[in-house]
Amino acid sequence: MSAYIENIQKHFLNNNRIRDTLAHTAKVHSVAWSCDGRRLASGSFDKSVCIYSLERDRLGKENIFRGHGDSVDQLCWHPKNSDQLVTASGDKTIRIWDTRSAKSVATVNTKGENINICWSPDGTTIAVGNKEDLVTFIDARTHRSRTDEQFKYEVNEISWNNDGDLFFLTSGQGTINILSYPDLKPLHTLTAHPANCICIEFDPIGTYFATGSTDALVSLWDLSELVCVRTFSRLDWPVRTLSFSHDGQLLASASEDLVIDIAMVETGEKVAEIPCETPTFTVAWHPKKHLLAFACDDKHDRDRDSGTVKVWGFPNEP
């Protein structure tokens, strides 16, 4: 493990350049890579979705998708089809987009203002949550709602496990609620944090999941035992967003702190940190490389959002 840490620290000393791409006219809420890593997408308060292709040491802007009538709050790519992604918006719809035809292939009306969305690991189902804590499960092929589940607690983020047989929700009560899937029967309630539990992320290996909370802690959980194995406490502000690297070894966490923390999953040690000038809303590791996409609350001047998407981990200039 120490050899890995030395190697990765050395790697980031030589590869810590940040590339900025001006994409939107307002705050960027969500960034995500396609499953093959060839494209990055961002969704913004300006109602648009931007698609970029990853070139050797930069992003190239490929397309801007418009159609939502309100802020695009979260997006995710199809887990197996690198051309399809889905977006959740405050306009009470979700949209499925295809990068080949560069347009929306489906618009599904929902019952409220949507704030979180995820795709099942097998690609058949999309779950979307709204501001009223209603989660709707939508058939990804017919674009019809299968079922609605109303929760009596504040639902912050939703996700399937990697096997797709459990459905996880983080709550305003600091708990992680685990349901069986597809029958959505409550199985476990984990008391994870003393404060609001904001985000949840599963490692690609299937060993751990991590949660971030308003108590500024990240907790790492063993998925088979459902026990907390360690916490990461270097941030001082509510942890809004998390991402595991493709090898499951690194965890990026971000908040209103002016750094993004990069930690070793197995030890909690700091591997690197990325300086930011403003709070960070979203982070996403590339599915094959040590490149981290992120977006902050950047301003052009005092009152105008800049809508910049950043990627860290490119080789430094020779």
TrEMBL record:
One of its GO terms (cellular component) is THO complex part of transcription export complex. InterPro entries: Tex1/THOC3, WD40/YVTN_repeat-like_dom_sf, WD40_PAC1, WD40_repeat_CS, WD40_repeat_dom_sf, WD40_rpt. One of its GO terms (biological process) is mRNA export from nucleus. WD repeats lie at residues 21-62, 65-107, 190-231. SUPFAM superfamilies: WD40 repeat-like. Keywords: Repeat, WD repeat. It holds the Pfam family Beta-prop_THOC3. PROSITE patterns: WD_REPEATS_1, WD_REPEATS_2, WD_REPEATS_REGION. The keyword Acyltransferase does not apply. Gene3D superfamilies: YVTN repeat-like/Quinoprotein amine dehydrogenase (2.130.10.10). PANTHER family: THO COMPLEX SUBUNIT 3, THO COMPLEX SUBUNIT 3 THO3. Belongs to the THOC3 family. This is Uncharacterized protein. It comes from Lottia gigantea (Giant owl limpet). The lineage of its organism: Eukaryota, Metazoa, Spiralia, Lophotrochozoa, Mollusca.
